[in-house]
Structure formats: structure tokens, C-alpha cells
Amino acid sequence: LPKLASTWARLVKLDGQFLARNVHHKLATVVVQLLNVKTAAVTVLLFCYYYYYYYYFYNAPTSKPIMLTDYLITVKTGNHFGAGTDSNVFIQLFGEDGHSEEWHLKHSKHHKNKFERNKTDQFIFSQIKCCGKLYKVIVRHDNSGICSSWHLEYVEVSDISLRTTFRFPCHRWIGGGFFHMFPKIKQLTCTEETIGPSKLEPSV
Q1: Looking at the chain, which runs of residues are DSSP E strands?
Q2: Which of 11, 20, 84, 139 lies 20 to 30 Å from 2, alpha-carbon distance?
Q3: For residue 179, is pLDDT > 60?
């Protein structure tokens, strides 16, 4: 009996140690899994935080205050037979800070009958959103009137706020011609900038 009791006690002790080891192993496994889940969650949260921080503070566009200006547009008609036009002429400006609407060149400062041969017309548009440094303009006319073809020498745009004049040479026919062979729209690229105050030309 003493031997049997001793053997039984030894077996119970071994079973207890084995059970304890299993319990500790399972607890350790659960703790590791929980730590892995927490680590993954923290990693995702940190990624989202830094992504949105970078987007809003570094990649978001900065709003610039809107600056208004006055534009003086000078248009020179060529010195060719039939160079003038009776059509409606429109212009649109494109610059580094945006583009303007399409403006109708309607009221010349010098001539009631505008866009005549070898004449210069000027137009003023006041309190317009500044387009910044100009790089191109688009000139269009609607081919209306009897003499619709038009030979355009150049366009100059003076930005009063920037105190800069941008020159856009053309030396081409726009609209009209036989069977309306000339294009109604012309894109002109800036070739020259002049720094200094702009002024109205004399009536020529």
C-alpha cells in the first residue's frame, strides 16, 4: 500500500506538471496572437494617420488670394487689300494662374467701325481676375457680315497690375475667304514681354 500510494502521488504530480505546462503554453499562444493583432491594428492606424497627414499638409493645393486687374487689349489689322472685317471678334487669355472667359471685342476706344485695314483698335476689360504671366491667346470670329475674312497682324495684352505687356504676333488670315477656307479660330503664342506702364495708343 505505501508503494502504491507513492506511485499514485508521483503520477498525479507528473500530470499536474504536464497540465500546467499545457496551460502555460496555451496562454502564451493566446497572448502572442493578441499582441500580433494589436501590432497589426496599430500599424494600420499609424499608416492611415501618416497618409492623411501627408495628403492634407503637403499635397493639398494651397488657395491663393484672387487678384483683380485691368486688361488693355491692342489689336492691329494688317495692311492688305480686304484685310478688314465686319465679323464679331472674340478673345480668350491663358496664363500661369488660369484663363479668362471668352470676351467679345465690341467697343473699340478709337474707331466706331473697328478692325479696318491698317488700323489699331484697343479694348479695356476692368476688374478681371488676373491670369498671371500670359503664354497664349485664342482669337475667334464668327464669319458674320459681308466681308468676313480678316488679316490680323498681332495682339498685345497689357496687364495693368503686373505692369507687363505680352505680344502675340499672327500675320495670318482668319475666317472668310472662298468657301470659308480660312480657319475661324487662331491660337497665338506669346513671343515678347515688355515691362512698364501701358497706355492708350493715339487714334490710328
Answers
A1: 68-77, 89-95, 98-99, 103-104, 120-129, 134-141, 150-159, 164-174, 185-189, 192-195
A2: 20
A3: no
